[in-house]
Write a structure and sequence with these properties.
The structure is a homodimer. In chain A, a hairpin with an 8-residue loop joins strand 8 and strand 9. By secondary structure, the first copy, chain A, is α+β, with helices and mostly antiparallel strands. Helix content of chain A is about 20%, strand content about 45%. Chain A has helices at about 90-100, 155-160, 165-180; strands at about 10-20, 25-30, 35-45, 50-55, 60-65, 70-75, 80, 105-115, 125-135, 145-150. Chain A is built from 3 helices and 10 strands. Chain A is elongated and about 55 Å long. At the A-B interface, strand 2, strand 3, strand 5, strand 6 and strand 8 of A face strand 2, strand 3, strand 5, strand 6 and strand 8 of B.
Amino acid sequence: MTPGDDTRFELVDEEAKWEGRIVTVKVARFRYPDGEVAEREIVSHPGAVAMVAHDEEHVWLVRQPREATGDPDLLELPAGKLDEDGETPLECGQRELAEEIGKAAEHWEHVTEYVSSVGIMDEVVHVYLATGLRDEHAEAEHNERIEIVRWPLADLDGAIAATRDAKTLIGLLWLKAHSAD
Amino acid sequence: MTPGDDTRFELVDEEAKWEGRIVTVKVARFRYPDGEVAEREIVSHPGAVAMVAHDEEHVWLVRQPREATGDPDLLELPAGKLDEDGETPLECGQRELAEEIGKAAEHWEHVTEYVSSVGIMDEVVHVYLATGLRDEHAEAEHNERIEIVRWPLADLDGAIAATRDAKTLIGLLWLKAHSAD
């Protein structure tokens, strides 16, 4: 048997349950080759882009309130939702880097894309390494509840210990693993 | 100003929108000290536990179909939902390790807990390092669609490149960063 032969599924039907401004929820049924049908609750999300932006001395992070998880000032990578029509993940990252920390980056490297909560949600998050930073203050959005944080690269472990945000852990752990090469 | 003083929020009210078997969805309003009120869509999830289980030579992973994200055989850490009343995250991890890969572990270390998708969902995932593995086949659940994968620790980079699952990237990148110490 080829691995995976009995794990391919096809959509049987789906029913929309709730539509919000950001997410929609549906219940879908899938059929496997052996005839079994599985029902799944699926939260649909437009996806997001996050940036590991550093200038060799500091990695640029933000702190912001996160109501859903009860965090008043969570330490995070600059990031944003893929919510503008026709915008690629890279273009979204470039726009969000300017809006959130007032920077443009000369070099962009696609680090990974991941699924946030695979059992229940279709959200995909693209993570980029952004280097060769320069000021682009003209583009910065005013948001008094987002604090820009320059964190010393020499204390990457401190930043990893100071957050519990998935995209930030993935980006900073990747950077730490990569720095050790 | 103390950082965070203007980012503390209080719940004003919330309205349930949909209740599924696993997740529930609500719209909640929060008020900041300056009087601004923010509305948020929140997906509530019971939380999960994932295990980085290794025996010095291999890390024990699973492959399984994931309908929500369209992955027929996603490479993942053994994991499970926190869905039994009164069960602690550690007890859940011990149960799931036995059920998914038929193992018990002598040593358990809490590596991190993270929030999966901070803007929209309250899911918290606990990640444990589980070592000192021994067989516990009596506890293994039969699920023909979960394939157990022993991945060589010497090729951790290969496993990181072969998955796009958040908990697995966090666990394996942590292991890689830690191994390099």
